[in-house]
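User: Can you help me understand a structure? I only have the sequence.
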Amino acid sequence: MPTCVTCHMYKGTHDVSQGITLGGASQGKFVGNEDTGNKQVKDPGSGIMMNGITKATFERERAKMLANCTLCHDRRFAEHKLGNADEIKRQSDSIAGEALKVIEGLYQDKLLDPMPENRPPNPLAGHTLVLTGQQLYEKTSQIEALFFRMYKFDLIQAWKGAYHANPDYTHWYGNAPLKLDLDEIKGEASKLRRLAALESKSGPVAKPEVTPAPAKAAAAGLSPEQYYALGVAAVALFMGSAMVLLWWITGRRREG
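Assistant: Let's start by predicting it. Here is the structure, written out as tokens:
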């Protein structure tokens, strides 16, 4: 039974990236004009930040993996499975890239809520839009949060499942959530654009304000402690009334 070590530490090597082509660490790799090493660059096809490799590097590493695969499998079978995984990687990147372009369009039209300049800066990029790569997962807009989940988890699970010959994981933990993510992002973008259109006609839509409990207490002429105690008493009264009502209904049913 093969294990992780069988494929990724072949003949005792500790270079666990040996034989890996497009399915590299983090966001994977794409075939381009140069080997970028550890430096992430934008994939021209999808717009996702990842490592670039040349065709020669791709073929060299694929040959290493096939040498390992053919210890158990026919070479044609192994080439077919790895080739399918390559295509799943490209198509999955394309789906995430479509979502990325939707958000970039909102950024260009200043429709993100909040815009990058109205929230804490990205430690590396400042007050600008950062998608993939060094994107943050807090103090961001809702649509960017949806995209973070999409590219950081669902996208990777789609193509990693494929490279590990696990169609169940590829589909139900990767491809299906990936396409649902795209629909959610498009739906959120549509809402933001419709809201902007309404505001352009009638003025900004006021956001509901939540009054803090201390302010409510002061307005009622109570201290925070008295306000809290009053709330506890109200809950207790409600629960007691509910228990009495339940007891009365139960008794009537027994009598009937």
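Now, to help you interpret it: The chain has a mean pLDDT of 88. The two ends are 67 Å apart (CA to CA). Let me know which part you'd like to focus on.
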